[in-house]
Design brief:
505 residues; 2 domains; 5-stranded mixed β-sheet; 16 helices; 22 strands; 32% helix
Length: 505
């Protein structure tokens, strides 16, 4: 069966390169491959096929994958399920009762006779929304190659986040099949379709299918490697909690000349309120904000001490005249909670600016959590701080009588929370993962916590296991932004890393 999408043909039921299925391709009695042998097979495989693999990756990227296009997500899911099936996997599109309209989780399993462990590979096939006018070509789903710093990159939505990880996993499977290598573990694949929409249904879907998603370890293949381009492993991720605050002034915009100095300006009130939340070094001043942080153990502290220090390189790359943190390194600061402004809305700017006092001002705050801090508690600390500044708090739109009754009014909305997770680095399975990745990539940067948020809590709760994050994208991939890209060498390196992990004994 052939699916046509945006001018590309996708063959369902045929492996990416038409290889034989992985199961049954190994001679009876053959010794199991080592992790380094599997990595070497992937390196050889990709080296001789750069052009055709790049073309196939571009065809995959050409399939729209944003939440606003549910049909596109269904096509992505059907395509990926067919690819896994062609590689010999048992496949299914997982859902849960009442969630039939939600993007399915693509599931696949390759069973190995006599296996004593199961390794689960997670990635997501959905991508962030796009604004075509912000892209260099105006076409986020028409991939193109561009050389940056002498190295080729492919540009398209999803290139780095997170279709690269899925493609690297499929390529690793093909390389193992082509080399007729024997594996010793069962492999499972869980590819989500709404990670960029907050994974609202992931835990529910996983719980409804828990007999299919268990494993000795979940390898979460998402995010960027270290800025030095060394392979990274992250043993946890920050959590995330959001707070939206709206302050109120006059019930309609007022002429700033006639009413300035008399009518309270909610935009000015908001920036004054926010300015009191952090000091000049970025330290949060909200009482008890840093309470409860679970300290890092000696293994985690050593990992941070051994990690590259890239702060000055990043400062130059990002043209930053100064950085927050009081001179502390970025990686150390990722192990503390943070408070950021995602956006502020009040009045108009530029050509649309008017000489008026706005009626409301709104801010969205993003709280990144670490192990030991609780999202709802941190949200409440923000609410308590706003109240301490003289504001009456309401969850709903205030009425006229309420606005008249209180000198200062704040409407505060609290979003659901994603808690932080961290896997101990000295677990036996963790040391095996580290050894496998080192066999493929050499030096590996070990991080107790990744700065971004991934739904690790949902995975661990449903699968009753631990998670370790194995990113492969370049750090400068414009993740979540226009002109998202992937350095192609990261794709080839990623296939080697995935192959080594698949060969863990």
């Amino acid at each position: 069966m052939t699916l046509m999408r945006n001018g590309f043909a996708f063959l369902l039921g045929v492996a990416v390169l038409g290889l034989p299925a992985l199961s049954g391709c190994v001679a009876s009695g053959q010794a199991a491959a080592t992790t380094s042998e599997a990595a070497a097979a992937a390196k050889s495989y990709t080296a001789s096929r750069h052009d055709e693999l790049t073309q196939q990756f571009e065809e995959f990227l050409a399939m729209p994958n944003v939440a606003a296009d549910p049909e596109g997500l269904r096509w992505n899911a059907a395509f990926l399920s067919a690819q896994l099936k062609a590689l010999g996997a048992e496949t299914a599109l997982l859902s849960a009762p009442g969630l039939e309209s939600a993007p399915p989780v693509v599931w696949g399993e390759l069973r190995t006779p006599g296996a004593t462990r199961t390794i689960v590979f997670y990635a997501h096939y959905d991508g962030q929304p796009v604004t075509p006018s912000e892209w260099e070509t105006g076409k986020p789903f028409t991939p193109y190659l561009k050389t940056v710093g002498g190295e080729p990159r492919v540009y398209a939505r999803g290139a780095g986040d997170d279709k690269a990880a899925i493609f690297a996993q499929m390529t690793a499977l093909e390389a193992i099949a082509a080399a007729h290598l024997k594996l010793t573990a069962n492999l499972r694949f869980v590819w989500e379709g709404e990670e960029e929409a907050g994974s609202a249904h992931l835990e529910q879907i996983l719980l409804a299918n828990r007999e299919r998603i268990g494993g000795d370890i979940w390898l979460v293949c998402d995010g960027p490697v270290d800025q030095t381009r060394l392979q990274s492993l992250a043993f946890g991720a920050r959590g995330d909690a959001h707070v939206q605050i709206t302050l109120f002034g006059p019930n309609h915009p007022l002429h700033s000349g006639h009413y300035g100095n008399w009518a309270p300006n909610p935009a000015m009130m908001l920036v004054q309120l926010l300015a009191g939340m952090k000091d000049a070094d970025g330290h949060v001043l909200i009482p008890h904000f840093y309470d409860g942080i679970a300290p890092l153990g000696p293994v985690e502290r050593k990992a941070l001490a051994d990690a590259p220090v890239n702060d000055e390189m990043l400062r130059q790359e990002l043209a930053l005249g100064h950085v927050d943190g009081g001179g502390r390194h970025l990686l150390a600061l990722l192990n503390e909670p943070s408070l950021n402004i995602n956006g502020i809305a009040a009045g108009q700017t530029g050509a649309h600016s008017t000489n008026s006092i706005p009626s409301t001002a709104t801010v969205n705050l993003d709280i990144r959590l670490v192990v030991g801090t609780e999202g709802k508690v941190e949200q409440q600390r923000v609410v308590d701080y706003v109240r301490s500044q003289g504001y009456f708090i309401t969850e709903s739109q205030p009425t006229r009588d309420e606005l008249l009754a209180h000198p200062k009014m704040a409407q505060i909305k609290l979003d659901p929370v994603e808690e932080a997770v961290r896997t101990p680095m000295d677990l036996p399975i963790a040391t095996e993962v580290i050894a496998a990745v080192k066999s493929a990539r050499g030096r590996v940067v070990l991080l107790p916590t990744m700065g971004g948020t991934v739904p690790l809590k949902a995975m661990e709760a449903a699968a009753k296991t631990h998670t370790i994050t194995v990113p492969i994208a370049n750090h400068d991939d414009n993740q979540h932004a226009a002109n998202e890209n992937l350095r192609l060498q990261n794709l080839w390196d990623g296939a080697e890393t995935m192959a080594a992990l698949m060969a863990m004994r």
